[in-house]
Design a protein that fits this description.
The protein is an alpha+beta fold and 140 residues long. Helices cover 22% and strands 34% of the residues. The protein is built from 3 helices and 9 strands. The strands form 2 sheets. Strands 3, 4, 7, 8 and 9 form a 5-stranded antiparallel beta sheet that branches. It has a 4-stranded antiparallel beta sheet with strand order 1-2-6-5. It is globular.
């Protein structure tokens, strides 16, 4: 009935609960599809260009990878426009844990430990494009 409320609930409590339900509906997460991502980049492309071929990698992880030691590398995307950096390492036993830290000016420190001997594949993408040389074959 209009003007009535539940026992133990004040008008203020009911109003707060209603606002909370509305807020949850407004802030629900939505998975972004690949086409949504591409449309987003296309809309912004008149201002921003993304070029995976301009990404440069350096560090001992590429030239001298270590077994059970911290492997580090710098991924320099400063001349590659705006996009998202994806890094993964797949070893004989599955994916290895990878830490990516944004340093400054689109330069990223990438760290990972290879726990098993054998061949590992290092994938590095800028957006949905492989950077030059990726995937990299690492053997420890």
């Amino acid at each position: 009935k209009p003007g009535s409320h539940l026992p133990g609930h004040t008008h203020h409590t009911l109003h707060a609960e209603h606002r909370l339900r509305m807020l949850r509906q407004q802030t629900s997460t939505k998975k972004v599809s690949g086409s949504d991502h591409q449309q987003f980049l296309t809309r912004r492309s008149s201002k921003i260009m993304s070029d995976s071929h301009s990404v440069i990698c350096s560090g001992s992880a590429l030239s001298n990878p270590k077994l059970e030691g911290m492997n580090k590398m710098l991924v320099d995307c400063s001349r590659a426009g705006v996009n998202v950096l994806f890094v993964a390492v797949l070893g004989p036993g599955g994916q290895e844990q990878v830490h990516v830290k944004h340093k400054e000016d689109n330069k990223f420190l990438v760290e990972f430990i290879m726990k098993e001997s054998g061949k590992h594949i290092l994938y590095i993408k800028w957006g949905d494009q492989n950077i030059p040389g990726s995937p990299f074959l690492l053997e420890v």
